[in-house]
């Protein structure tokens, strides 16, 4: 089992995961990161105020991967 840490990064900074979770495979950690990202998106501000958000996953040894949601808008005026 490997302990993975799920740090959250947004436009205001980095929020490190101090505890982490243990998984048998990286694929399980990737699924957890995707779920965490989906949960974060549900709690975000309305569309006009949305910001990029990422879950940066690391082990005790190295950074492993990052799952990110990047908002872009092509606003049109009416």
> How many DSSP H or I helices?
1
Q: What value does the Rg take, in angstroms?
A: 14 Å
Query: What value does the average pLDDT take?
Result: 87
The total count of strands amounts to: 5
Low-confidence stretches: none
Beginning-to-end CA distance, first to last residue:
55 Å
Task: Give the class from helix and strand content and strand pairing.
Answer: alpha+beta
Helix content: 10-25%
SSE order and pairing:
Layout: E1 2-10, E2 13-15, E3 21-23, H1 26-42, E4 53-58, E5 63-69
Antiparallel strand pairs: 1-2, 1-3, 1-4, 4-5
Summarize it.
Helices cover 22% and strands 36% of the residues.
What does this structure look like?
The chain is of the alpha+beta class. The chain has one domain. The chain is 22% helix and 36% strand. Strands 1, 2, 3, 4 and 5 form a 5-stranded antiparallel β-sheet that branches. A hairpin with a 4-residue loop joins strand 4 and strand 5.
Structural descriptors:
five-stranded antiparallel beta sheet; alpha+beta; 5 strands; elongated; 78 residues
């Amino acid at each position: 089992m490997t302990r993975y840490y799920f740090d959250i990064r947004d436009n205001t900074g980095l929020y490190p995961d101090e505890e982490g979770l243990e998984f048998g495979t990286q694929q399980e950690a990737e699924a957890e990161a995707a779920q965490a990202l989906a949960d974060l998106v549900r709690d975000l501000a309305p569309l006009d105020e949305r910001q990029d958000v990422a879950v940066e996953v690391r082990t005790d040894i190295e950074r492993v991967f990052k799952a990110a949601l990047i908002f872009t808008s092509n606003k049109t005026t009416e």
